[in-house]
Every structure is written in C-alpha cells, then in structure tokens.
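New to this. Look over this protein:
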Amino acid sequence: MLSIHTICDMLIEHMKSTNEKIGNLIYQIRQERGLTQAEFARRLGTSQSAVNRIEKGRQNLSLDTLGRISDVLNKQIISLGGQAVNLRIEGGHELTGEITTRVAKNSAVCLLLASLLNKGTTRLKKMPRIEEVNRLIEVLVSIGVKVRWMAGNDLEIRPPEKLELENIDKNAARRTRSVIMMFGSLMHQFNEFKIPYAGGCKLGTRTVKPHLYALEEFGVSIDTKSGHYNVKVNKKLPEQVIMYESGDTTTENAIMAAAISDGEVTIKMASANYMVQDLCFFLKKLGVKFEGIGTSTLKIKGVKTAKRNITFYPTEDPIESMTFIAAAVVTNSKISIKRVPIDFVELEILKLSKMGLKVTTDSTYKSANGHSNLADITVYKHNGELKALEEKIYGRPYPGLNIDNLPYFVPIAAVAKGRTLIHDWVYEERALYYTEMRKLGVNITLADPHRAYIDGPTQWREDDIVCPPALRPAVLLLLGMLAADGTSILRNVYSINRGYEYLAERLNELGAKIEILHDI
C-alpha cells in the first residue's frame, strides 16, 4: 500500500505535468495571436513575470484565472462543463466615456471567404476576434489554408496549391451561415464540390433559393437535399444578372462568381450595403474592375486569375455603433462613439432625433481603407423625455434603416413615452424573440410574427434568462439588463460572441458592471 506521502508526491508531480501542458498551450495560442508577453499581461491584468511563470507551468491556475485567460486569447483553454459562458449584470448604472467602433463582423466573414479567390497572400487588418471568424478560420485551416494571427489583430491567409475539401471541418461549417459564401469562391477551383449545410442565427426559414437563382446564371447548379450543398459547375459568363433578392450574402456570391472571369457582367438589384462595398474594394486590389459601387447596379470586369500579395482594411461596423447608441439610450447616459461609419447609421440617428434624442456628429473622415466615411458622435442623456414615433419603424436594404439595426429600436422604444410599432418583415421569427424582453418588464405585444408593438416607458426589472439562438435579440436582453436595477444573469452568450468582440469588457470600460462566468 502506498503511503500518504507517496500519494501526495504523485499528485504534486501530476499537477506539475498538467500545469506545464496548460502553460505550453497558453504559450502557443499567445504566439498564434501575435501577442507579446507584455501585451498579454496587460490584457490579463497581471505582471509579465506572472505570465512567464504560467507559460512555464510554475503557477497554479484557478478556474477563474483560466476563464480570464480564455477570454483574452479568445480560445477555450480547458473544457468546462458544456463550455457555456454566462454574464452577471449589475444593472442601473449610468455609462460614461468614449468607445471606438471596431471592424465590421459582416465584412470580416465575407473577406475571409473572398481570400480563397486570391492565390497570393492576403492580410486583413484589425480583424475582430469573434466566434463567427473563429469558425470560418477552422473551416479554412481544415481545407489546407494557412491562417495566422499577427500583431494588432491582423490576419494573414495563405492558400495551398490545391484545397483539400474532403477534410472540411463539418462541425465548424454548420455553426455559421457565412459558409454559404463558399459557393462564389470555390466555383472557380472545382467542377464539383460539396459543403455542409449552413447554420448561424436561427431566424426562421432562410432560403438559399436567391443564391441558386443568381449562381445558375454563371453555370452553377446546387442540390440541397442530402445534408450537404452538392455543387456542380459548368462555368459561363452572363452579360447581365438580375438579383431575385437584394440580399447581402446573395450579392456577395454573385460578385465573387463574376470576379474570376474573362469578360464583363452587370448585376442589377444588387445590395449596396457596407460589407458588399468592402468586398468590391477588396477585389479591386486583385485587379477586378467595378462601376457603380454603392449603388444597386454593378458593372464588373473580372480577371482570369488573381495572385497578388495584398493588404486590406475592412470597414468599421455600423451595427456595433448602433449597439452602443442603444446602450446609451436605455441607461440614460452620455457617451461618445468614435469611428462610426456614418453613411450607414445616419437615418437611424435622424429617427432618434425625431424621438427627442440629442446626438451630435463631428466632421467626417476616411476609414483606413480610404473609402468609408467615418465620424465621431456623442449621444446625450434624454432624462426620460423620448417620445414614440407615430410611424412604424422598419428596416430595408441600403439605402434605408439597416435591417440589422432595426432590433435596437426595441429597447429604445421601451424607454420612450407612447406606443411604437416595429415591423421586422425580413425574418420570420426574429420578432418572436423580442417577446423575451417581457421578462425584463417591457410591455410588448405581437400583432403577428413580423410586427411588435412596444408601449413605454418601461419599469425595468432583473431576471435570469438563457440567450436566444439569434445574435441581435440576445444583445437586446443584455441592454435591458444594463437598464434594470438589481442583478441579472444572461446565460450561454455564444450567440453574442459570434458577432461582438469583448462586448462585456468594453461596456465595463464605460461604467457597466458585468462579470463573466464560466459553467463548470
């Protein structure tokens, strides 16, 4: 029989071995992220010497510390229960200070897949470390693409001579709807291929028919009946494509289909949204020529092949800017938001001004990509004097109130006096998720699956709620909890982390009190 001292010695040696393995893993991930020890220590809120001890396995690590390391590296270090991340929100606190808008999620995911068109090296600047990007990186790496995080959140992408589609990470692909944009990029490399069904936000029936109708003009046929998208390609170049639906990803697929070609194509009824414009500016660096960027009619002259080493700066995220505007409104706070892509939120700001909200906009300047117009704005306290608009609020393709910004008028309407009608006509089920706000005290009535009436002002209350499987409705609950006195719990926030980078931490910088909790 082993003595107690021998057992203790064995346990200590096992702990040392485990700590060394975890430390080495942390070191490797830090290197992949392009972080120095000093920068990692600063983000972690500790000393560089402590980080050195952690990476050499000389530091015992609590679950809380491992959770914080996971958050900073944007990578789960160890498996904790169901790996759910929860938020504890102490509401009722006024926000103050300034926040900077980061790179657009919808641009980032599109450009990741558009990089497959380039046989050279692509570097995308200041990319958001969000779950949607992580899933797509996992997909790209699984098919042989070399992807590396660089300093400053830059992402370097190097394609192989031949993609290994047979090795595609099916689980990662099925957790993002963005994978559907592989149609437009892979059609130039394969006569036949298949990719897993797309996942992402659960917002009712989201048909791929508009993609099929656009791509069939380029000789692409897609069978969607077998658990995969089975794609066959017999390339041809149409003179003109009329979009069946002016969707963002649908337009992006059509643009990528036209980009690698020996001729000209006109695309009508195209989306002119910010991520579509970003794709056009990106492809111009590969030699593709465009007329009509920012309009619904695009003339595209493709290139036979693209092999260039390029660097591109995606634009800032108007949806993130709108999120912080809504956070200021629901908490009755004054905050400044920098680097707002003003062309894509100016109508939202106009409507807010008609409700009685004061927002000032500084002079515009260009984004690092040289194209997007940015402005710094300040949102002021309203002191409960907002009034509901008489007209319904609805989204529409650009130019118009952004479809992804529409949900943020739900908590805004909840603090206004009177009744507001929100008409969310695009998605079959997104308005249904709005009713979760009732748990926080919002008086909301569904007229039908697309229309919701909100009667304000709201007497906010705390609650314990599981995040819905949809990005924007999940963030609405977080905003409502910021406004509610008391302590709320928002559980399993993966859907938020799909589209926002360190949202809880950044709200805390403005004075929110949010604690990140990891399920065990």
